[in-house]
TrEMBL record:
Keywords: Glycoprotein, Membrane, Signal, Transmembrane, Transmembrane helix
Residue ranges of the TM segments: 222-243
Signal peptide segment: 1-25
Protein name: Ig-like domain-containing protein
Record organism: Tachysurus vachellii (Darkbarbel catfish)
Gene3D superfamilies in the record: Immunoglobulins
InterPro entries (UniProt xref): CD2/SLAM_rcpt, Ig-like_dom, Ig-like_dom_sf, Ig-like_fold, Ig_sub
Length: 311
């Protein structure tokens, strides 16, 4: 026996099912992410009247196209736009995270829950070399730790290593990477990527700028010229010091020689011959002295004669 449903009953059943599915869709919680200092907009349309609730407290109320914001935390930050009918929260803070419920009570009735997560933006990661040998080069990527941070090493978008921050107790999140030194490494580019749900920063570099690459165990092609240059520089310095010392010694010798010649010009030396005296020599010298006596004459005056007589 074939049963037929009246047309109006079938329409009521379809309407009932659509309301059920619509209620299920509205009950799903939407994830919303925001960055500190930015703003988010809750997408449920409240054209005439409605509310927005945060942690079981009504923080925003709309009645007949007039809005009222409650709570010191949301004053001047939570806004209702009468043209679009949307609630917007600006100047986001980390403690704004949580569950928000927006409900429209007139005209376009509806209700939607939103779970807001507010994150700090990540900073650019820094890469440095921590160890290098003839075969390996070890690199360290570091970045300031924030909530939800993920740090990744990659090569040409191929994942090599990664770590996720579970807490913000540590001020820095770091991740190591070890690279084999081979010829093909010279053309390889590596990236360290720091990201969270609201931001992403990447530091990309060529491995030759961070690691000194060798061909197997052969000496580094950059090290040899550097060593040779240092040796030549040392030799030049030593030679310069030696020549300068020699020049100073020669100059001192020239000055000493000139001083000696000056003294020789001022001093005249005479030869002294000593002859032992004899009786003959004594007599000859006595005769010479007698012969060399000089006779002195004087005029006799009367005054002088009288003085002599008196005496």
């Amino acid at each position: 026996m074939r049963t037929c449903f009246p047309h109006h009953r079938l329409s009521l059943l379809c309407l009932f099912l659509s309301e059920i599915f619509s209620s299920i869709g509205d009950s799903l919680v939407q994830e919303v992410f925001g960055a500190v200092g930015d703003s988010v907009t809750f997408s449920l349309h409240v054209p005439v009247s409605g509310t927005i609730i945060y942690k079981d407290e009504t923080v925003g109320l709309v009645f007949n196209n007039q809005s009222e914001i409650n709570g010191e935390t949301f004053v001047n930050r939570l806004h209702w736009h009468n043209q679009s009918g949307f609630f917007t929260l600006s100047d986001l803070r980390p403690d704004d995270s949580g569950l928000y419920t927006v409900e429209s009570t007139k005209v376009q009735k509806g209700k939607q829950e939103y779970h807001l997560d507010v994150y700090e933006r990540v900073s650019a990661p820094r890469v440095k070399k921590t160890f290098s040998s003839s075969e390996f080069c070890s690199l360290l990527c570091s970045v300031r730790n924030v909530r939800g941070l993920k740090l990744v090493w990659s090569e040409d978008h191929i994942l090599l290593n990664q770590t996720i921050s579970n807490s913000t107790s540590n001020t820095t999140l770091s991740l190591h990477l070890e690279i084999n030194k081979t010829d093909k490494d010279r053309q390889r580019n590596f990236s360290c990527v720091a990201s969270n749900p609201v931001s992403k920063e990447t530091t990309t570099f060529n491995v030759t700028k961070v690691c000194s690459l060798n061909k197997g165990t052969q000496p580094n092609h950059i090290t040899i010229p550097v060593v040779v240059s240092v040796i030549l520089l040392v030799c030049v310095i030593v030679m310069f010091v030696y020549l300068k010392k020699r020049k100073n010694e020669a100059s001192r010798r020239t000055e000493d020689s000139s001083a000696t010649e000056g003294l020789n010009e001022e001093i005249q030396y005479s030869e002294i011959n000593h002859i032992k005296p004899t009786q003959t020599n004594i007599r000859e010298h006595a005769d010479e002295e007698v012969c060399q006596l000089t006779t002195i004459y004087d005029r006799i005056r009367p005054e002088r004669t009288s003085e002599s007589s008196t005496q």
